[in-house]
């Protein structure tokens, strides 16, 4: 492998990273929104969300990416590859994140809420200052876990022609006729990215232990 | 016009699923008074306490905190959350299971409500919190997180948290029931000090000695009825009802 090949690999890694990062950021926030809406138990909205979460969790990522990219023109949407990829990854990860957030909601103790109300906090202040910070801490290990899953399943976006970190290895070996070095190099880059996430997860877990009374 | 009592309860009733847990309770607690609420489990004493700050909504009757009606507005409708929170801020509550906020350290637990509810400046809230932590003997642990504390220490922090809002009345819901026996004393000592400093307190408790030594009034609940209300000496030496006599015999 020469310098040119490494450059291509890094480009592929960058594609994987920025598309995944946007999907992760959107997915975490939308997941929280879905969990909040579901806890509000609004008729029809709740059923619709349950349906979405089950569908998104049951659909393979490759299928979802293809479906979104290929069906967009039918709905009159001009969608480029990257947007379709981000949308598919977001729809997928948001559904899993919603479940992580919801678990944190359900397991939150009523007593802490009573303590907050008893000293004059409104529901809004209680949520913002007492509940949300703890939900973030207790959900973080699960959310980070989901993030690393997302990155590891992101090669699915190659199906619509995006040259991500995995796809780029094919390109390189098509020229060099040596598939092993680029694959190993790509694996190393994946490990680096996931390694950073695992580090974050370890810190998050340590902080979460504090909440266990 | 004389000063409004800290807490005035009139004809309060409450049922859960058709079971009456409070029946026509009336009670006046004046400023600076300590009232102990006794009774066996299930007599309704915790529910009574939780109605005072509207954590439970009573079915009938009214409650005034320092002259202001809680839970019901001038039109007789259910109070909006903001107004309800404003009146609740005039009460403090200490729970059986402490209910500290585990993501905040001791100092932050005490500072949180003054800063968020009273919009107090941080340095001012910190100064108040430090003074209160000294009052309950927890100033050494200001930076510690709740999970590192013993039950007695947690409860003393919870008391400081309740005091931080300078409430008209502090409601204690069996504050020593979840503690190891050797930790009960440190919490009761703090509470005794508060009573001698003139704080208004309503205490649901099983600690007979404490009730006798500290209270201005002792009330006894039985199946949701307030069956006896007397000064502590009379209550413990010469109660009016046979039920209280029996209760005292069994619990000493």
UniProtKB/TrEMBL annotation, chain A:
Annotated InterPro entries: AA_ABC_transptr_permease_3TM, ArtM/GltK/GlnP/TcyL/YhdX-like, MetI-like, MetI-like_sf
- Report TM segments: 12-37, 49-72, 183-204
Instruction: Supply the SUPFAM superfamilies for this chain.
Output: MetI-like
Specify the domain of life of the species encoding this protein. Bacteria
Q: Which PROSITE patterns match?
A: ABC_TM1
Annotated GO molecular function terms are: L-cystine transmembrane transporter activity
**Location in the cell:** Cell inner membrane; Cell membrane
Q: Does the entry feature the keyword Hydrolase, yes or no? A: no
**Keywords per UniProt:** Amino-acid transport, Cell membrane, Membrane, Transmembrane, Transmembrane helix, Transport
ABC transmembrane type-1 domain location: 13-201
Keyword Methyltransferase listed? The answer is no
Q: How does this protein sit in the membrane?
A: Multi-pass membrane protein
Q: What are its GO cellular component terms?
A: ATP-binding cassette (ABC) transporter complex
Pfam families this protein is in? BPD_transp_1
Q: Which family does it belong to?
A: Belongs to the binding-protein-dependent transport system permease family. HisMQ subfamily.
The protein's name is Polar amino acid transport system permease protein
Q: Which organism is it from?
A: Ectopseudomonas toyotomiensis
Question: According to the entry, what is the taxonomic lineage of the organism?
Answer: Bacteria, Pseudomonadati, Pseudomonadota, Gammaproteobacteria, Pseudomonadales
Automatic annotation (TrEMBL), chain B:
Q: Where is the ABC transporter domain?
A: 7-248
- Reading the lineage from the top rank, the first entry is Bacteria
Keyword ATP-binding tagged: yes
**Membrane topology designation:** Peripheral membrane protein
Pfam families annotated for this entry?
ABC_tran
From the Swiss-Prot or TrEMBL record, state where the protein is found: Cell inner membrane
Q: What Gene Ontology molecular-function terms does this entry list?
A: ABC-type amino acid transporter activity; ATP binding; ATP hydrolysis activity
> What residue ranges are annotated as transmembrane?
none
Keyword field: Amino-acid transport, ATP-binding, Cell inner membrane, Cell membrane, Membrane, Nucleotide-binding, Transport
GO CC annotation? plasma membrane
What InterPro entries does UniProt report for this protein, alphabetically? AAA+_ATPase, ABC_ATPase_HisP-typ, ABC_transporter-like_ATP-bd, ABC_transporter-like_CS, MetN_ABC_transporter-like, P-loop_NTPase
User: Which family would the database say this protein is a member of?
Assistant: Belongs to the ABC transporter superfamily.
Record's protein name: Glutamate ABC transporter ATP-binding protein
UniProt organism field: Pseudomonas sediminis
């Amino acid at each position: 492998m020469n310098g040119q090949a490494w450059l291509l690999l890094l480009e592929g890694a960058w594609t994987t990273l920025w598309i995944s990062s946007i999907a992760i950021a959107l997915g975490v926030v939308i997941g929280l929104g879905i969990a909040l809406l579901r806890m509000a138990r609004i008729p029809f909205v709740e059923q619709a969300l349950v349906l979405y979460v089950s569908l998104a969790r049951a659909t393979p990522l490759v299928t979802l990416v293809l479906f979104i990219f290929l069906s967009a023109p039918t709905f009159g949407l001009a969608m480029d590859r990257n947007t379709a990829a981000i949308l598919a990854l977001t729809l997928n990860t948001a559904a899993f994140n919603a479940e992580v957030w919801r678990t944190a909601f359900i397991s939150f103790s009523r007593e802490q809420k009573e303590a907050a109300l008893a000293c004059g906090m409104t529901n809004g202040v209680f949520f913002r200052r007492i509940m949300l910070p703890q939900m973030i801490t207790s959900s973080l290990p699960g959310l980070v876990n989901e993030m690393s899953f997302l990155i590891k399943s992101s090669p699915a976006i190659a199906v619509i022609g995006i040259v991500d970190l995995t796809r780029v290895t094919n390109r390189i070996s098509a020229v060099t006729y040596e598939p092993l070095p680029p694959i190993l190099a790509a694996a190393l880059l994946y490990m680096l990215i996931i390694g950073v996430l695992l580090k974050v997860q370890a810190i998050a877990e340590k902080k979460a232990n504090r909440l266990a009374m | 016009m004389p000063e409004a009592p800290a807490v005035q309860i009139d004809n309060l009733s409450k049922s859960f699923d058709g079971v009456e847990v409070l029946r026509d309770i009336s009670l006046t607690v004046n400023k600076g008074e300590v009232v102990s609420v006794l009774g066996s489990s299930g007599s309704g004493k915790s529910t009574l306490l939780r109605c005072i700050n509207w954590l439970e909504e009573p079915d009938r009757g009214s409650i005034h905190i320092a002259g202001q009606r809680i839970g019901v507005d001038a039109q007789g409708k259910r109070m909006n959350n903001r107004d309800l929170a404003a009146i609740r801020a005039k009460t403090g509550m200490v729970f059986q299971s402490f209910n500290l906020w585990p993501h905040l350290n001791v100092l932050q637990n005490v500072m949180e409500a003054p800063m968020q509810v009273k919009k107090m400046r941080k340095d001012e809230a910190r100064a108040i919190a430090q003074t209160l932590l000294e009052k309950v003997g927890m100033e050494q642990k200001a930076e510690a997180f709740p999970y590192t504390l013993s039950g007695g220490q947690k409860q003393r922090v919870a008391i400081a948290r309740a005091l931080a809002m300078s409430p008209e009345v502090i409601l204690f819901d069996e504050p020593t029931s979840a503690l190891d026996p050797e930790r009960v004393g440190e919490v009761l000592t703090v509470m005794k000090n508060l009573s001698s400093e003139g704080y208004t307190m309503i205490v649901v408790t099983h600690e007979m000695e404490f009730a006798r030594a500290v209270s201005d009034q002792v009330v006894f609940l039985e199946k949701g009825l307030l069956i006896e209300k007397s000064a502590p000496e009379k209550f413990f030496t010469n109660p009016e009802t046979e039920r209280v006599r029996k209760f005292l015999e069994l619990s000493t």
